[in-house]
Amino acid sequence: MGPFAVVGATGAVGQEFLRILQESGAPLDGLRLFASPRSSGKTVRVGTREVGIEPLQEGCFRGVHMVFFSAGKGVSREWAPRAVRDGAWAIDNSSAFRMDAAVPLVIPEVNGDVLDTCRTPCIVAVPNCSTIVALVATTPLHREARVRRMVVSTYQAVSGAGAAAMRELEQQARAYAAGQPLDMSVFGRQCLFNCFSHNSAVGAEGYNEEEAKLLHESRRIWNDRQLRVTATCVRVPVLRAHCESIALEFERPLSESRARELLAEAAGVEIVDDRIGNRFPEPLSAAGRDPVLVGRIRPDWSLDAGCGLQLFVAGDQIRIGAALTGWRIAERLSPVICG
Known about the structure:
This protein is 33% helix and 22% strand. It has helices at residues 12-24, 73-85, 108-111, 129-145, 163-178, 209-222, 256-265, 283-286, 319-338, and strands at 4-7, 32-34, 43-46, 49-54, 66-69, 89-92, 123-125, 147-156, 196-197, 228-235, 242-250, 269-271, 292-299, 308-315.
C-alpha cells in the first residue's frame, strides 16, 4: 500500500491515524498531508520526518494510492469524489456517504467481506464512532441469536467533538482549580462536572443525529431492516473513549455462558468483567487501546430467560471509533488492490 494522503491531518482523528500508520510499519514515502487553509505551510512530525501541510486543489491526489478523510462532511462531499477521479481509494470518516447505497459502510470485524467485491478505486465510509463501538461488541451475539431490539445509552467523551473540545475540557479543569473563568466556546456550556444531551441537532421526533445514526447505520451494516434500535446519547466530561450501556433482545435463546464464549473469541473484543472486584469497562482503560472492552454481561431481568442480555462497553472513539477502523479498511482492501 501507499503512497497515502490524510485530509484533516492536524485534527484529533488525523493525528491518531498518523500514529497508526507509523505503528503499522507502512511505507511513508510520498505521504501527503492536507488540512484547512489556516494550516497550509505548517509542518507535522511523522516519525523522524517533518511533512508539510498542503492546500486542497484540483489534481492534488494524483499519484496517491489511498486518501483518508477526517475533516468533516462538507470537505468529504467535495473532495472524496475528486480523490477517486484522481485514481485513489477514499476512506471517509465523516457522515457524508454513510447512507449512500452506492458506498460501502464498513466495520472490518463485522462486514469486511463487502470490500472483497471492490475492484476499482471508490469511496468507503467509516461508520459513526458509537455505531462502531456498539456493533464490534454485539455482532458476535447477533450472529448467534439475531438481535431483534437494541436499547443503547451512551456516555460519550468530548473527543467526539474534535481536538478543540478536548482542549476546552482541559482548560476548564485548570481554570476551575485556579478560580478563573471557564472557556465554553465549543459546547456552549460547562462540560467539567457535568453531562448533557449529545450536541448534535435534535430532529422533529426528539432524537438527535447521533441517536438516529445508531439506528440507520446498524440496520445497514447488519443488513437488517427489521432491527429495532432506540438510543439516548449523552456527553460526559471524559477526554477519550466512549462508553455504552446496551440492552439486547434476541430472536433465539442465548445464555450468558454462551455469550461469554462468543465474546472471548471475537475479533476486536476484550472482556473486562470482574464482579468480585467490581471492575468493568472504563474509559481510562480503553483510551489509546485497540479493543472494545465488554463487561457487565448479565441477563436482562425484564425479559424471559435467555431472551435478552445487558452489556456495558468502552472503546476509544478516536482510535477504534475512527482512525483504526479506517486503517483496518485499508488493510482489508490491500489484497483487492494488489491482486
